[in-house]
Amino acid sequence: MITVGIIDSDEHARQETQRVLNSKNKVAANQIEVIFDIGKGRVDRAMTAPDVLILDIEHQEPLIVEHVKSIFPKTEIVILTNTCDVKTVRSCFRHGAVGYLLKQTCMDSLLAAIKITLNEGSFVSPGVNRALIEQSFKSKKIEELLTARELQIANGIIEGLSYKMIAQKYTISLDTVRIYIKRIYRKLQINSKGELIAQLTA
Question: Are strands 2-7 and 99-102 parallel, antiparallel or unpaired?
Answer without folding.
Answer: unpaired
